[in-house]
Amino acid sequence: MSKSIKEFSLHYDPINESNTFTSGDIVEGRVVLEVIKEIKVDSFFVKLTGDAHVSWTEGSGDDETTYSDHERYFKLKQYFIQESSKKDGPVISPGCHVFPFRFQLPKQNMPPSFKGFHGSVKYVLTVKLSRPWKSTSSTHTELNFVLRNDGTNDHLLQPQSGTQDKKMKLFGSGKMSVTVTTEKTGYMQGETIKVFVDIDNSSSRDVKLKYSLKQLQTFIAGKSTNRGHKDIVKETRDRIPSGEKSKFIVDMALPHDLTVTFENCRILKVQYELKVYLDVSFASDPEVRFPVVILPAEQQCPPWQGPPGGFQPYPPPQPNLVPYPGELPPPPAGLYPNLYDPTVLPFPGTAAGVYPNPHAIQPGFHPDPSAPVYDPNQSTI
Questions:
Q1: CATH classification (class only), 152-355
Q2: In 3-state terms, what secondary structure has residue 17?
Q3: Helices and strands per DSSP (H, E), number in the chain
Q4: With the CA atoms of 164, 169, 172 and 173 taken in that order, what torsion angle do they form, in degrees rounded to the nearest 10?
Q5: Other C-beta atoms lying within 10 Å of the C-beta of residue 218
Q6: Could you report the per-residue pLDDT of 215-250, keeping only the tens digit for each?
Q7: pTM score, two decimals?
Q8: Which of 87, 210, 332, 350 shows the smallest number of beta carbons within 10 Å?
Q9: Segment 165-219, tens digit of pLDDT
Q10: In the chain, what are the domain boundaries?
Q11: Burial code of 151-181, b = ≥16 C-beta within 10 A, e = fewer?
């Protein structure tokens, strides 16, 4: 910082306890500038910007290639001192000066703040002070932007159910099956996902129940795509011996600060996938996968009303699993619509209505076309 400037700081006023902002909110604050002696000024302004950026490098040496792209949502600027063509420009006298500012975030469908493996979405306040023959003084701070609560789509309340069978051929005989059911598709931050698992191990092999919830990150730059994932939940349960049947209720607690699902960014998307499978040594694992939509904490789905009709788990008790005696009758046809077919892509475009329309926007805002959807058959980087 220049010897002439004692303090140069940027402050904004929180509007709620969580210190978050969303579309249409007012952002107010002040810039504090304390100077020891008079300074000449070319321009002095504060701006608020919303941007998404992705970048990654592939290859090495002469074959190294960098892929990058950028998407801007808005740029708002407020001048304290406008640029002037006059020879003798404005001056700021010695002392402490406070410059208030006020912006309104655009009322449009924008993605939430996010930082991923190869990109980010940022909403930034920046103040710049330009002086003749001096280096520009600048400081900035980020806002935590969240999606607005616009209500829950009915299709996010629909249950999901799937079954996978496996017949043992090598290193064993018999067959096994796993049926997985969830009571809905959309869950808010901090909520618990209840997963109902019915296992019939009629094979000669012991198996283990495993499950995970993955955050899938997709980055797009032109025609190139980079994908990565992060485990939110990943657990292994006790084995199911040969010839036994088991039914479980598995609880998956979601973090309160978990990034919500968003697909309204042309170059960056965040989605989630629930996977439940039986670990079979030296053989392919029968697995069931479902898409999961994470919603803002205020955007609640109705509370859990109990397990699906007829679900009666078995003993003995296990940690975080709730076995009961009884037999599970097959559900009536059509009770649990198969929203996910593991032979096709697990995200929008494959199961109509599983995801909300991320491009339901206010008039006047026209985002770029959606990027390619996640393909689980492609390797992640």
A1: mainly beta
A2: coil
A3: 0, 19
A4: 70
A5: 27
A6: 999 999 999 999 999 999 999 988 899 999 999 999
A7: 0.74
A8: 87
A9: 988 877 778 899 999 999 999 999 999 999 999 999 999 888 999 999 999 999 9
A10: 5-143, 152-355
A11: ebbebbebbbbbbbebebeeebeeebbbbbb
Let me know if 4 is exposed, middle or buried by CB neighbors in 10 A (0-12, 13-18, 19+).
Answer: middle
Q: If DSSP codes are grouped into helix, strand and coil, which group holds residue 95?
A: strand
What are the start-end ranges of the E strands in 41-173? Answer: 43-58, 65-81, 91-92, 95-104, 114-115, 119-130, 137-143, 160-167
Q: How far, in Å, CA of 221 to CA of 53, rounded? A: 9
Over residues 49-94, the pLDDT tens digits come to 999 999 999 998 889 999 999 999 999 999 999 987 666 778 999 9
In the numeric block, the tokens 């006047």 are attached to: 364
What percentage of the chain carries pLDDT values higher than 70? 76
Domain 5-143 and domain 152-355 have a common topology: yes
